[in-house]
Amino acid sequence: MSGSALYETFARAPLAFERGEGVWLVTESGERYLDFAGGIAVNSLGHSHPHLVAALAEQAARLWHVSNLYEIPGQRRLGERLVEASFADKVFFTNSGAEALECAIKTARRYHFVNGHPERFRTITFEGAFHGRTLATIAAGGQAKYLEGFGPKVEGFDQVAFDDIDAAEKLIGPETAAILIEPVQGEGGVRPVPGASLRRLRDLCDKHGLLLIFDEVQCGVGRTGKLFAYEWSGVAPDIMAIAKGIGGGFPMGACLATDAAASGMTAGVHGTTFGGNPLAMAVGNAVLDVVLAPGFLDEVSRKALLMKQGLAAVADEFPDVFEGIRGTGLLLGLKCRVPNTRVNMALRDEKLLAVPAGDNVVRLLPPLTISDEEIRDGLSRIRAAAGHLAELPAPAAS
Q1: Could you tell me if 143 and 130 are in contact, meaning their C-beta atoms sit under 8 angstroms apart?
Q2: What CA–CA distance (Å, rounded) separates 296 from 17?
Q3: How many other C-beta atoms can be found within 10 angstroms of the C-beta atom of residue 115?
Q4: Element housing 342 (H / E)
Q5: How far is CA 349 from the centre of its chain?
Q6: For the chain, percent helix, then strand, then coil, each to nearest 5?
Q7: 241, 253 in Cβ contact below 8 A?
Q8: For 353-383, what is each residue's pLDDT tens digit?
Q9: Which residues does residue 181 pair with via DSSP β-bridges, in sequence order?
Q10: Which residues lie closer than 8 Å to 193 by C-beta, 6 or more apart?
Q11: pTM for this predicted structure
């Protein structure tokens, strides 16, 4: 054996962190980085949030795992709270966003099966989507770079261009079961879907007897200034997948659905060993304690405006580096004129962590608990990175 014992599937940055404090990550040597990556929108309340740490430690001292062969009181409580705060009537807990999407897709197919239409299994998706890394979810996302080398693409997914609702309508046929969309594309380049488009999709689903599925794995749980991004449009889905922020750093996800949509998901047709375990449920409930506290989401929106205005000023100052600002809430993107990998490296040189995305965008995903002072600190680092990039000659064409 040579090299690392790990699969070589990650192009990791040469950084390792020993601890985290709020919006900060600290290396073993004591270097402090401002974390605007958030574990890819996962650390919704920052690092080592005292309420989450206490909830996890208390539960860890009592019980870790029993499986879904038995009642899990924390699961029942978190499910009831998610239902009360959303469109949903039912919740299935998972360990990840991909698993939540798998459950959503299976829920939609099963709905049509039990209603006498087993032929309806196809799902319409949108270019630029990212729904996970399982065989079904890479097929749903449709991106060639994730599909290559894994054999025949899983059948049942039809894709149209981003926000092309006319094309989606034309694709609806006798085998169509559902339409799946991210209200805000994250991996695809921080692209919000217009509310009018989501409303049209809702109308199409109602007209043709389809289920509308929202993927809020990245944009949900307060990230946009409401608990769920769909709330801005006034459109409710039939099924929704969440993950990332609901665990605040602990791996968990959930599939939410209406009673009607979940009607086919009866005993034995779906399952999970670890999903909804007591540790995850303790943390998920602790996250909701914070995010649903009075005024918290209003503060997210206020801070998001402060940050977006600051980013716009930086983009105006360095038009050769940045083309513009995208996103909503604290899910923001810098559309770059130079390669986003260069921008990401320049930001890291300023000890600010960000996340590259599609369409030559750099994502900024700070914790929802970030302070105004930390926003201003981040903006000054972004400005400094842009200044260095503006002074550098463009790389020679290869």
Answers
A1: yes
A2: 29
A3: 13
A4: helix 340-349
A5: 26
A6: 40, 20, 40
A7: yes
A8: 999 999 999 999 999 999 999 999 999 999 9
A9: 214
A10: 163, 181, 182, 183, 184, 185
A11: 0.95
